[in-house]
Amino acid sequence: MTKKSYIQAITDGLDIALGEDSKTLIFGEDVGKNGGVFRTTQGLQDKYGEDRVFDTPLAESGILGLSIGLGLTGWRPIPEIQFMGFTFEAIDSVAGQMARTRFRFGGQKNLPITIRTPFGGGTHTAEMHADNLENFFTGIPGLRVVTPSNPYDAKGLVISAIENNDPVLFMENLKLYRSMKDDIPDEKYTVPLDKAKVVREGTDLTIVAYSAEVNESLKVADKLAKENVSVEVVDLRSLSPIDTDTIFASVEKTHKVVVVQEAQKMAGVGAHVASEISEHAIMSLDAPIGRVAAPNSVYPFAQAENVWIPGVDEIEAKAREILDY
Amino acid sequence: MANKGKNAVDFAAIKADLGSDFKPVQILDNDGNVVDSELMANFSDDQLVDFMKKIVWERALHEQTMNFSRQGRLGFYAPTYGEEASEMGTVSAFKENDFLLPAYRDLPQLIQHGATVTEGYLWSRGHVKGNQFKARALMPQIIIGAQMVETAGVALGLKKNGEDAVAFSYTGDGGTSQGDTYEGMNFAGAFQAPAVFIIQNNGFAISVPRRKQTAATTLAQKAVASGIPSIQVDGMDVLACYQVAKEAREFAVAGNGPVMIETLTYRFGAHSSAGDDPSRYRTKEEEKPWFDHDPLIRMRKYLTGKGLWDQETEDKYVEECKASFKDAIKEADNVEPEKVSDMLKNTFEVPTPDIAKQITEFEAKESK
């Protein structure tokens, strides 16, 4: 066990994947000599050489198109898109091409590609750097979308994503990169790609969240525990597919649920979770489904993030409303 | 302040000169006369006849396919009438282990590269079996810039594999306006990957003429900024198309990086079989000079003059080809319809839990 930050855990996972499979390739903007703008790929080019870890020209559709071609010729690409907002440049490469390739071939070819990309608010970046774009990507058949909320899951999930033979979008939370440290095993381990995790057991209310909002939700659970209110927190980890079994089991136990996300409320992950609960577990509920999400405006400029991103206060208020219903 | 000095730049002169260094390669002229005997010396009589047969095959494929289309027996089909030299000349230069990334007007090349006509017809109808060919290729691309970035990736993969092979792709004049075309050429150049980009300039992107597509005087010059050598070729001259593509492949496979070829051809027919009417956007007078360039007539004149071909041989071969296409569509008729459960299985290698449930639901329905 070693104490590692969220970003070090990802680097560790990448290192293990590169070491185990000589067909893995890491590439993208600045990932080579510079080790990535956040240093996620630090030291990997020195260790594995420029043939395995290399810089590309600055063009996102080119990077993901390159990934498809490399995948078709026997390689296991791990492209980085420097910020999730830059994926807009590559929507066709993902949705129109990569995610459809296995389907087009009638299952005869797979594309084992893991797209890594940082996202998430709270670090006051320039525009287009922090947007939560999972609401787009979870609507793409043939693409898995996962995002860890802690260093342990970060390492295990990135290894699972790389080992998986289908395209996976691996979303790395910018704010968590260096703000969170945990003791994690030094050896290889994996975390399943389609299983949510109950990160806090409770009996009075379920909070379903993912990424940084899991940690905000845990703070609310701590706060309410002081009033003898027992909150269960479910970390989705996988945003596509969604592990509804774990959610239903929790809701059937607590009978009350609040679904939390940092992304805008419109058409997205939280809406899908709420709809699944409505369709399959509504008879277990003693109160309406609570939702905490960002407003449906464009993602804010840096100085307004604090009034826009839902945090502990909003989660706590919604939790109390549903508990008191 | 008075302007006493001279101008630093003559932009008008630079603009007038852009693209002026491209001279299309030609071996045979419109009337079937040899214009470059040294290049013609590369071809044996057998090869010449083989090229003629390929052109006749593609023309017959087009005619028969349009018939099937009019009978309602096919789905989307992009006519290739007029582009036979460009398509057959270039594709013939590549080897079986080269990786083809075609666009939607490139079914004939996909078939020449190892897919069957039946698979071509199934692709047109919209059946997954049309994509399960043994050719080393992707299925025809609809988003006609996407295959360009993928070509860079395939080419880099082949290079990393140490293979004696290239990636070769096709797009059209319209496709060169796609951002992905620039990204693909630039990436292939940056990685010195063995790629051959073939731009079939057939004059139209559906209804928009080439002159409205770009201010560039040639499409070939679009490669220059990526550090990629490029060339224009008479796209109605099958021998010139072959020769240029062959040399491009040799250059790329030897580790010299990518190449781009612009073939100057013409879409004699409509954009697609689905109701496009060229008379809405071009006149018979505009079309006339291009019909004078017909690649089939040009080769027929040349080979007939050499005593290597005659009308009877041609008629007989057309009948043979058409009979094989009729067999192919019958074979396509016998393919089982697709099942939703299979589509779900084809989405991920290991079905996700939600998909696994839907597979069970659909298998229950399908077994009734």
TrEMBL record, chain A:
CDD domains: TPP_PYR_E1-PDHc-beta_like (cd07036). It holds the Pfam family Transketolase_C. Gene3D superfamilies: 3.40.50.920, 3.40.50.970. It comes from Paucilactobacillus vaccinostercus DSM 20634. Its cofactor is thiamine diphosphate. Residues 4-179 form the Transketolase-like pyrimidine-binding domain. PANTHER family: PYRUVATE DEHYDROGENASE E1 COMPONENT BETA SUBUNIT (PTHR43257), PYRUVATE DEHYDROGENASE E1 COMPONENT SUBUNIT BETA (PTHR43257:SF2). Keywords: Oxidoreductase, Thiamine pyrophosphate. SMART domains: Transket_pyr. This is Acetoin dehydrogenase complex, E1 component, beta subunit. One of its GO terms (molecular function) is oxidoreductase activity. It comes from the Bacteria. InterPro entries: THDP-binding, Transketo_C/PFOR_II, Transketolase-like_Pyr-bd, Transketolase_C.
From TrEMBL, chain B:
It catalyses: N(6)-[(R)-lipoyl]-L-lysyl-[protein] + pyruvate + H(+) = N(6)-[(R)-S(8)-acetyldihydrolipoyl]-L-lysyl-[protein] + CO2. Residues 55-336 form the Dehydrogenase E1 component domain. GO terms for biological process: branched-chain amino acid catabolic process. It is an enzyme of class 1 (oxidoreductase). GO terms for molecular function: pyruvate dehydrogenase (acetyl-transferring) activity. It comes from the Bacteria. Keywords: Oxidoreductase, Pyruvate, Thiamine pyrophosphate. Gene3D superfamilies: 3.40.50.970. Its cofactor is thiamine diphosphate. Its EC number is 1.2.4.1. InterPro entries: Alpha-ketoacid_DH_E1_comp, DH_E1, PdhA/BkdA, THDP-binding. The pyruvate dehydrogenase complex catalyzes the overall conversion of pyruvate to acetyl-CoA and CO(2). It contains multiple copies of three enzymatic components: pyruvate dehydrogenase (E1), dihydrolipoamide acetyltransferase (E2) and lipoamide dehydrogenase (E3). Heterodimer of an alpha and a beta chain. NCBIfam families: PDH_E1_alph_x (TIGR03181). PANTHER family: 2-OXOISOVALERATE DEHYDROGENASE SUBUNIT ALPHA, MITOCHONDRIAL. This is Pyruvate dehydrogenase E1 component subunit alpha. It comes from Paucilactobacillus vaccinostercus DSM 20634.
